[in-house]
Design brief:
Two copies of one chain form a homodimer.
Chain A lengths: L1 E7 L3 H12 L3 E7 L3 H9 L5 E3 L2 H5 L4 E4 L6 H8 L8 E4 L5 H11 L6 E2 L1 E3 L20 E4 L7 H13 L3 E4 L2 H27 L4 H6 L3 H6 L7 H10 L1 H23 L3 H22 L1
Parallel strand pairs in A: 1-2, 1-4, 2-3, 4-5, 5-6, 8-9
Antiparallel strand pairs in A: 7-8
Helix pairs in contact in A: 4-5, 7-11
The complex binds NADP nicotinamide-adenine-dinucleotide phosphate (2 copies).
One NADP nicotinamide-adenine-dinucleotide phosphate (NAP) binds next to helix 1, helix 4, strand 7 and helix 10 of chain A.
Protein name (chains A, B): prephenate dehydrogenase
Catalytic activity (chains A, B): prephenate + NAD(+) = 3-(4-hydroxyphenyl)pyruvate + CO2 + NADH
GO molecular function, one term (chains A, B): prephenate dehydrogenase (NAD+) activity
Chain lengths: 288, 288
């Protein structure tokens, strides 16, 4: 049971966790914190938070659990602001999409890695933003990856794990570096391709007409290109090493594919497409 | 009203047209044609066709409308087989995803472009294949592009247009070359990215684990990588010029994006992502 939960950044990710814990009756009071008043007022109106403040230091005062769900570029500032206002027993965890940068930001702000900081990342989301996009079921049967460090207090890790399980998620632990590589492959690279494709078409002279002839598959394929540009700028900068490596790997694949197309090498094309289809179908089966 | 409709290739595309025209009461008899017996027997059982044959020449005998919906690589062979068996008034149209190659195949098989051949392409489909994947509503409110040539008989064009409208589609006409460029951008390039991404991940050492952490967005993003590899090999070979040009254009975009990531150029990244998001959101609005 969490007595006082502070949500710094009451958007899709923060708002959904608050809703899920409330729905489960697992939290006493929820304090919301953000910069803009309208979103916080909306959060109050929707019953996602009990009170709100625009000052992170005030939000964490008296809180036993703090969930930081702001864009990655704002993490360090939040850590610096709350540093001197945390209860000694308070647990801090986050939902940032890259873990190496959050750990660096924490070390930068706190001087050393706080034992009661548990870096985390829910593998769930939509292309929408803000508290109005949040919903209690977002984490149901979704994975949450926690990346504890040698310094991390096992009790804090256990409490954060229990919190996510209460929200309906399956919790896994892995190292910070491994998380950032896996996510570069499964999430960050696909987002780059979707943004890159839509931008390529948008920059073509006849782009109005081109979009007019885009069929059903295009809608799904490009859905993630409607994601929040600020959040994705921050993810790219924060995970630039692992993401650059994946982009290079993908570039090699596409050069091979483009060569096979140019040379009308049907055999090679069939091999690539068949292997991809088999992997996709296998993934779907296992996701079921 | 079509008296006798011959469907050469009773798969997703051919089967769905037969179902739609039957549902509209717009066709007397439907003859199905394919290579494998089980699919044809299934088509009969499902009521998609009234009779079937494995010989295209037999299928077209006495047909007033012939719809060729085989993979692009099989088009020329079908044209050669039916050439000497068509009724002089019979109209031949097709559903192939590339139009330049179909026109070349027709010229190759018939010696000259038959006036009653109307090249066409329904902008509708799913990642599934075969008659069992077909359904009568596939073309409802979807676009069908016809690419008539100067030689094309206006009456044949009018009849094919009416047929697709009866199936629920909106018909547009454009030139063969323009069709192949527009589709390279909106359909063929996205399919290459989906196949290329899934194959890149499938070839990584830890690929089992990687797919395990793929989230909801990944499922949608890669759906088209479950498409039929033979069909896509044929599309790539048939449209290799326009597709190579689009791959090159996309490559320039991705080089720019990768450079911006490597240099942590947040401003440039935000510009690219914001422009892409705006274009995607605009496209969605207009698709509504
Ligand atoms: N969306 C996804 O699919 C997804 C999935 C997993 C993880 N994540 C991660 O979760 C975090 C939040 O993403 P989200 O999708 O929930 O975004 P969101 O809906 O835009 O919510 C972010 C919230 O943070 C607030 N905020 C921004 N800067 C702040 C600051 N300096 N101080 C205090 N509050 C601030 C924003 O409100 P104001 O602008 O009013 O301050 C907003 O309500 C990000 O780190 C992201 O990487 C996202
Ligand atoms: N799927 C889409 O999203 C989509 C969209 C628009 C256009 N198209 C185009 O539509 C055409 C058909 O695609 P589809 O998705 O309907 O594929 P499909 O479901 O696999 O159907 C193709 C059918 O053609 C038959 N066939 C293959 N080779 C043949 C041959 N040499 N002679 C006679 N029949 C043959 C196949 O049966 P057997 O193997 O038993 O012969 C199969 O039933 C392709 O040209 C494709 O480019 C597809």
């Amino acid at each position: 049971m969490i007595k006082r939960l502070a949500i710094i950044g009451v958007g899709l990710i923060g708002g959904s966790l608050a809703r899920a814990l409330r729905a489960a009756g697992a939290v006493g009071e929820v304090v919301g914190c953000g910069r803009a008043l309208p979103n916080l007022e909306k959060a109050l109106e929707l019953g996602v938070v009990d009170t709100f403040t625009q000052d992170p230091a005030e939000a964490v005062a008296g809180a036993d659990m703090i969930f930081v769900a702001v864009p990655l570029g704002a993490m360090r500032g939040v850590f610096e602001t709350i540093r001197d206002h945390l209860h000694p027993q308070a647990i801090v965890t986050d939902g940032g999409s890259v873990k190496g940068s959050v750990v660096m930001d924490a070390i930068g702000a706190f001087g050393t890695l706080p034992p009661r900081l548990v870096p985390g990342h829910p593998i769930a989301g939509t292309e929408h933003s803000g508290v109005e996009a949040s919903f209690a079921e977002l984490y149901h049967h979704r994975r949450v990856i926690l990346t504890p460090l040698p310094e991390t207090d096992p009790e804090a890790l256990a409490r954060v794990t229990a919190m996510w399980e209460t929200a309906g998620a399956d919790v896994t632990c892995m190292s910070v570096a491994h998380h950032d590589e896996v996510l570069a492959a499964t999430s960050h690279l696909p987002h780059m391709l979707a943004f890159g494709l839509v931008d390529t078409l948008a920059r073509m002279r006849e782009n109005d007409e081109i979009f007019r002839y885009a069929a059903g598959g295009f809608r799904d394929f490009t859905r993630i290109a409607s994601s929040n540009p600020v959040m994705w700028r921050d993810i790219c900068v924060a995970n630039r090493e692992a993401l650059s490596a994946m982009l290079a790997r993908f570039g090699v694949e596409m050069t091979d594919l483009a060569e096979s197309i140019r040379h009308a090498d049907g055999e090679r094309l069939l091999e690539i497409f068949a292997r991809a289809k088999a992997a996709r179908d296998r993934y779907l089966d296992s996701a079921r």
